[in-house]
Design goal:
The complex is a heterodimer of chains A (about 300) and B (about 350).
Chain A (H helix, E strand, L loop, with lengths): L4 H4 L5 H17 L2 H25 L3 H6 L14 H7 L1 H4 L3 H32 L5 H10 L5 H15 L5 H26 L2 H9 L4 H30 L2 H6 L8 H9 L9 H19 L15
Helix pairs in contact in A: 3-15, 7-10, 7-12, 7-14, 8-10, 10-12, 11-12, 12-15, 14-15
Chain B lengths: L3 E8 L9 E8 L4 E5 L6 H9 L6 E6 L2 E2 L10 E4 L11 H11 L4 H14 L15 H14 L4 E5 L7 H18 L2 E6 L2 H7 L2 E6 L2 E6 L1 H6 L4 H6 L6 E6 L4 E4 L2 E4 L2 H8 L5 E6 L4 E4 L6 E10 L3 E10 L2 E10 L9 E6 L5 E4 L7
Parallel strand pairs in B: 3-8, 3-9, 6-7, 7-8
Antiparallel strand pairs in B: 1-2, 1-4, 4-5, 9-10, 11-14, 12-13, 14-20, 15-19, 16-17, 16-19, 17-18
Helix pairs in contact in B: 2-3, 2-4, 3-4
The chains are: A mainly alpha (about 300), B alpha+beta (about 350).
Chain lengths: ~300, ~350
């Protein structure tokens, strides 16, 4: 064989350079100073409420009750008392450290279970042939129409009859089932986008369904899994309704329930709310920062041409 | 060491009346390079995918090495396939791409390493082994796809238009590389293309398909010299053969004033179902440009393609049935100008005569 190397050393085709230049002009237009200024202003306005909440969480009880957070700039007085109070079960009237753990115990399986099941189901719907496939897929898609609230009471009855009420199982099961239709639908669309020749190449290389799924598809699915994982994590972490219905008892109640108790049922310690909210925010922010690096575009680049 | 046999293999897509591949009978010999060619939608890719096991065989059988593989999954057929769009695993390096099939077979690591290195050396991919496909050019990706097939040492190579995504120059280069690689490795190869030049230059034998039906299988030379029917005659060769259906009389075919003499047997065969007509074809290079003469066909030149070595002259002639387009190849120094009238005379030894009704060669 004679070499083809001299012809093939530059992988940038003409079309790509054209695209680049189009992107470059767009970028040049968007990065004008006025556009940047507008973006900064928007970002500041958007952040102000959160910022106010953050400052409030460091203010004394007295100040919180009497003045707005912006007065701190003229009369700075900060304290960690709120955080101490929030984290101390005796003082807050609500056991935040325990419920923090409860939240984690509730959320992690509620994310992992639907992710695992949905990605498997999505693969089956996208790349396997079995009788009733289309009907089942439409049925699953249609399940999204059912409002969550409608199912709460029947589910509770079911859980009671199964004797698992008041355990974490209730939350895991309900969150998983609520998440599955959308998860299957989203992942199915994503898996369907993978070029069929890639799957066929793997089949010819000798891969069965299991190998195709784990060795070829799963690595390509990470952006979708990360995206759905974050969505589901935030949704479950911030959920109050399902937890309140199924996990209202103090032993297993999550942060959201306890935080609402701070203001709601007792009504006395609402000044602790901002500190509690920031304790609760830590985890979702960490999760987001950890997973966002999986949002890689162009994961399929180089696989197929055209 | 393998032969491939299609035994009346048919594929009928669900919800479709007409078979995509209709009772395909084809014998492919050991170490043979067979090219399946035809216009798009003719069933050539479907035939290949039936052999690969990616497409069901609805009727008939497919045998590899005398063994019935009709209902076996792809992985049990010991075949390797190169896809039109390469279908490389984007998350794996070149090395992992080539090693994937062997890894699945649980081949020992040292052996995988040896096989991959060997194939990489053969395809000049050594320096790219640790790269991901997206960091490769089109030609390199194509070679990785080839490497992935070679590493497996399969019984049969299947190639589905592997060159159609390369630019023209690289395509010509890779074309000869694939042909010599196949000769060196000695593996039976089935190659699908819509490009008749690829088919002519690469194949030991070429199978021409149309509408799911095999038209003719033969060596490229035989296909070119004695096409079995009108479709094959028009499909093989570029520019295409001049094929006209004209009135028939006792002695030959009438191109207006020009009478092209046919033998008595040819006339007799053309009469049957021909409705008083006969289809005559001659290749662009099998016609002479002559001076003004009564027994030559006058043609008004519409376009002249100067190819450097020679020229293609496109023009039209007014025949009794209406205006007909012709193309002839001339030497460069005889190149006519546009609008000029030239006189052409087909060489009677290189005529292709077909029955006007059935389209079958006489």
């Amino acid at each position: 064989m004679t070499t083809a190397a001299p012809l093939t050393t530059t992988p940038v085709s003409k079309a790509e350079t054209k695209k680049l230049s189009a992107a470059a002009t767009a970028k040049a237009k968007l990065s004008s100073p006025w556009a940047s200024l507008a973006a900064v202003v928007l970002a500041v306005i958007w952040t102000i409420p959160t910022f106010g909440l953050l400052i409030t969480s460091f203010r004394t009880t007295e100040d919180i009750r009497r003045t707005g957070w912006w007065t701190t700039f003229t009369n700075p007085l900060f304290t960690l008392d709120n955080y101490k109070a929030v984290l101390d079960p005796e003082q807050a009237g609500a056991n935040l450290p325990d419920s923090f753990l409860n939240s984690l115990v509730m959320t992690i399986p509620s994310v992992l279970i639907p992710l695992c099941l949905a990605s498997l189901a999505a693969y089956a719907f996208a790349w396997m042939n079995f009788p009733g496939k289309n009907f089942l897929f439409i049925a699953i898609f249609a399940l999204q129409i059912v409002p969550l609230q409608v199912t709460l009471l029947p589910l509770l009855q079911l859980f009671v009859s199964w004797d698992i009420d008041g355990t974490f199982w209730t939350v895991w099961l309900s969150h998983s089932t609520f998440a599955l239709p959308l998860a299957i639908y989203l992942l199915h669309n994503f898996i369907k986008e993978v070029p069929s020749s890639l799957i066929e190449a793997a089949r010819i290389d000798g891969a069965g369904h299991v190998s195709i799924f784990f060795r070829v598809l799963l690595p390509l699915l990470t952006p979708a899994l990360a995206a759905f994982g974050i969505f589901q994590f935030l949704w479950v972490w911030n959920d109050l309704l399902v937890s309140l219905t199924f996990a209202g008892s103090p032993a297993i109640s999550p942060l959201t329930v306890q935080l609402s108790n701070l203001t709601g049922t007792r009504g006395t310690a609402w000044y602790l709310l901002s500190a509690g909210a920031f304790v609760s925010i830590i985890v979702p922010v960490t999760v987001f920062l950890l997973l966002q690096r999986y949002f890689v575009r162009g994961l399929l680049a180089g696989s197929v041409k055209g | 060491m393998a032969t491939v046999t299609y035994d009346k293999a048919s594929r009928i897509y669900p919800g479709s009346e007409r078979p995509a591949v209709n009772e395909l009978n084809l014998e492919i010999g050991d170490v043979e390079f067979l090219v399946l060619v035809g216009p798009s939608g003719c069933g050539k890719s479907t035939s290949l995918r039936m052999l690969a096991g990616l497409e069901d065989v609805d009727r008939g059988r497919i045998l590899i090495n005398e063994k019935d593989v009709t209902h076996l999954p792809p992985k049990s057929r010991d075949i390797a396939m190169v896809f039109q769009n390469y279908a490389l695993y984007p998350h794996m390096t070149v090395y992992e791409n080539m090693a994937f099939a062997l890894k699945l077979r649980k081949t020992p690591k040292s052996e995988i390493d040896r096989a991959v290195k060997e194939a990489a050396a053969l395809l000049q991919l050594e320096e790219y082994l640790s790269r991901k496909p997206k960091a490769l050019s089109g030609g390199q990706r194509q070679r990785v796809a080839m490497g992935r097939a070679i590493v497996r040492q399969p019984q049969v190579f299947l190639m589905d238009e592997p060159l159609s995504n390369l630019d023209a120059k690289l395509r010509v280069q890779t074309r000869s590389q694939i042909a010599s690689l196949q000769a060196k490795l000695g593996v039976t190869t089935v190659y699908v293309t819509h490009d008749q030049v690829e088919a002519m230059t690469m194949g030991h034998r070429v199978a021409v398909m149309l509408d799911g039906v095999l038209q003719q299988v033969d060596t490229p030379r035989a296909l070119y010299d004695t096409p079995g029917n009108v479709f094959v005659a028009g499909f093989m060769g570029s520019p295409a053969m001049n094929i006209k259906t004209v009135p028939l009389n006792e002695t030959g075919a009438h191109f207006g004033a020009l009478n092209i003499p046919l033998t008595r047997e040819q006339v007799a065969a053309a009469r049957e179902g021909g409705d008083g007509k006969v289809t005559v074809g001659f290749r662009p290079e099998a016609a002479d440009v002559v001076g003004e003469s009564a027994d030559a066909l006058p043609i008004v030149v519409d376009l002249v393609e100067d190819l450097g070595s020679d020229a293609n002259v496109y023009g039209h002639a007014d025949l009794p049935g209406g205006s007909e387009r012709f193309v002839v190849r001339t030497e460069r120094r005889n190149m006519p100008h546009m609008g000029e009238t030239v006189y052409i005379r087909p060489q009677t030894t290189a005529l292709h005569v077909f029955n006007a009704g059935s389209g079958i060669r006489i």
